[in-house]
Amino acid sequence: MILNDQVAEGDKVASFWTGRGTHAGPLNLAAGVLEPTGNPISFGEMRIDRHAGGRIVEAWFLPDRFTLWAQLGLLGG
After folding, report:
1. What is the pTM of this model?
2. Sign of the alpha-carbon torsion through 39, 35, 72, 41
3. φ/ψ (deg, to 5) at 19
4. Where are the alpha helices (DSSP H) in the chain?
């Protein structure tokens, strides 16, 4: 994982990161399980965490699933 950017204000921290790897295990999707493809993958995620008492107590995140699904061959074209 690469942390691309991070900003904090008050009790919230906003982060943008990129994850990279290889699809080497089953992926559980709403339509069923996608068995490992061996494909290299890279996708970003924007995330906001709210902290209290030194812990994350709430989290909101938006992963770039479109890019991930395209790399796994799930989108027709």
Report:
1. 0.76
2. negative
3. -105, 140
4. 65-71
